[in-house]
Structure formats: structure tokens, C-alpha cells
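User: I'm putting together a small comparison set for a docking exercise, and I want a reference complex before I start. The sequence is below, and the ligand is 6-O-phosphoryl inosine monophosphate. Could you produce the 3D structure with the ligand included, as C-alpha cells?
Assistant: Of course. I'll restate your input first, then give the C-alpha cells for the complex.
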Amino acid sequence: MAKIDVVLGLQWGDEGKGKMVDVLAGRYPAVARFQGGPNAGHSLYFEGQHFVARSIPSGIFREGSTNIIGSGVVLDPVTFREECAGVEKLGINPYEKIRISKKAHLILPTHKLLDAAQEAAAGKGKIGSTLKGIGPTYTDKISRHGLRVGDILTPDFAERFAKAKARHIQEIKNLNFECNPEEHEAEWMEAAQWLTKFELIDCEYYVNEWIDEKPMLAEGAQGTLLDIDYGSYPFVTSSSTSVGGVCTGLGVAPTRVGKVYGIFKAYCTRVGSGPFPTELFDETGEKIRQIGHEFGAVTGRPRRCGWLDLVALKYTVMVDGVTDLIMMKSDCLDTFETIKVCVAYKVNGVETDHFPFDTQAEIEPVYKEFKGWNTALSGIRSEAEFPKEFKEYIDFMEQHVGVPIKIISVGPDREATIER
Ligand code: IMO
Ligand code: MG
């Protein structure tokens, strides 16, 4: 019996999951996405190529890999078809390498419009959604109105589509949002039919039978601080981005889960609205944004930047049961004289190391300062070459969080990865 190991983002997304899944995928013959949809943008750099994976698992460029789009995912056939065209251009046959769960829910064109209508109506309270229709699609799933990939093959598909569309149009009208709901319908219908060229699977049987024999890697999208239950609600995405999402999204029991890799950046970023205790509004934040190229892979939006938050990290490590930490982008801090990490919060004047229920309360971070290493980490390929200051910094973090940092990434390429 093999296990399903998991890679999860421990912050607000964009931790570098794409790169690490691509690196780890060399060891796993299958990679599965279990939640989220094209709101994800997982950047892969290899052999001089750059590819942004949206719904396709990041194992796609590994030879002989099987890539599963699980039941917990929401799939937009149009974006997925564009993505597959990009993969084909790079010499990969997507039909051979991708399997899609029949139970994955479909993002309809009117889900996207509804997303835009809801955000426009929310004004200042808007979530800062990626406008890919994620929230409305999961809403329909939970309210038992959704359309699933397996439904495309049923005779009443067009009728059910029309019913859902009519319901969405009414909601859009109620929000006084101007749009043409039929603009992309023909293209969408065609792309939905095209999905049937893939092997459509009973995900729970496929995954369980696979891990009876061979290991599998589950690839999270977004991050635990965007989790529908444990994130900074309501400024979250609409799926279970934490470890529990693996079980519900793929149909596997917790006893089948092996390692849980938790990925974090050596600083924090966030796109969209919502609380961010360590956010920097000064030139330090701007310096991190420029050096780290912190602009959205999907939307191009500048990401909000700030110091590493160990209160939040300890919290997500606990929620996810992380066994192995992976630290990304510490090389982006190479030129800082002083590096800060937040070790506690003052919530309404009271110090705590717990992530609070009311994340919109007045939160003042309490920082510990480290002397910068002032050395280029990007060329380093072994732990023995680490500067003394960097070693002190990672030793502190491991002790504080209580989980070893097993992998340190010092650049976007596969090779810029140090294992300990
Ligand atoms: P990856 O997988 C960062 C954010 C959005 C918004 C909130 C809700 O690349 O790390 P949604 O469109 O999901 O309804 O938006 O969640 N968000 C992400 N932020 N990385 C992502 O994915 C994200 N996916 C959604 O910016 O604040
Ligand atoms: Mg991203």
C-alpha cells in the first residue's frame, strides 16, 4: 500500500506550489488537484520554458505522469481548453496524461458574470475575487444546483444548463449588473463537449486503486489562510484549501494520507482584500514586491507584501498537520540589512500567539529582528554553504514552529532546490 502525500500553501496563496510540485513530481507517478479552479496560477520554470498551470496539475511536464483533476475542483472548459493548447505547444499530449473526475463541477459562463456582479455590488466590502466564477460555482454545488463534468453526457444537459442560466440571469438582474449573458455560450458549449475526449473517471475508485499500488501527490491551490472554514473569513476562497480538502476532494480517507508538505515564502503576500497583520506600506514592502516579482500570475495585480508571520504559520501548520516545511524565496531577502519575523500579535492591546477569530480586529504584530545575511543565496546548492546568519534564521523558525524545514528553494528553476 502506498500513500497520498500532499503539498499545501500555508499562507494566502502564491507560495510557489507550482515549482515544488513540479520538482516533487519526479518522485510521484501521479499528481492530483483536489479543490479550487482557474483562480490558481501555478508557475512552472523548466528548460528555459515558463508555463502557468491553472486547472492542470503541475506534474504535467514530468515524463509518464498521470494528472488528475479531482471531484473537489471546479472546471471552466474554455480556460482548460486554452491551457491544454499551451501544453500541446510544448510537446505534451494532454489527452494521454490528464484524467478528469466526473464529479468535478462545471463553471458556467453565467457563474463568471455573477462573480463580477456580486463583486461590483459589494463595493468596499468586495473580496477581490479573481472573477473566474469560483464562488458562484461552489455556491451552486452546495445548494445542490450544480452541473458536473459527468452530466455533459446526459440527454438533458442542455435543459439543465438553460435552467441554471435563467436562475443566474435573474440574480444578475437583481444586482443591476449590465452584461450579455449569451456572449460566450456557444464557445463554452463546444468546449464542454470537447471535455469528453478525456478519460472521465470515478475519482474515488481511481485514486484509491492507484494508491493501493503506487504513490500519488495531491496539489493544493490557494493557501490555508484562504480556506473557507479556517481562513480569514469572509476574505477567503470558496473551497477547503487545507488538508481536509484532500479527503473530500479526492474521495480518500485520512488514513491514506502520508506526508504533508507545507509551503511558505520567507515573507508574506496577499492579493485581493482582507486582513494582513504584517503588511508593509513603505519602501521595504515595495522592495520585496520588486525583488520577488510579486504580481499576480493570473490577474497581473500587484500583490500586497509584508514580513513573515509566524503566528499565522504556526496556526496553518497545526490545521494541516504539516510534517515537512518547504521555504521559498529566501533569496529575495538577500539584500536586506535587517529581516523581521512576527512572533506574536497584540490584539486590542493584549499579546497572543493565537490566530484570532476576528481577523479584522486591531492587530499589531510583535517582531523579532534578524541580521541580514547579505550573501546571494541563489547560487547555493548545499546546506554547508549557508551563511551563518541564514542558518540562525532558519534554526529559529524550525524551533518556533516545531516542524523541520526539509526543502529550501533559492530560485525559480528546478535546480535551485536544497534538500536537508
Ligand atoms: P494560487 O493557487 C492567491 C484570492 C483572491 C481573492 C480570494 C477569493 O495561485 O496560490 P476567488 O477568485 O477564489 O473567489 O477569490 O482568494 N485567491 C488567490 N490568491 N493565490 C491564489 O491561487 C488565489 N486564488 C484565489 O485574490 O482575494
Ligand atoms: Mg498564484
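The chain has twelve helices and 19 strands. The chain has a mean pLDDT of 96.
User: Thanks, that's exactly what I needed.
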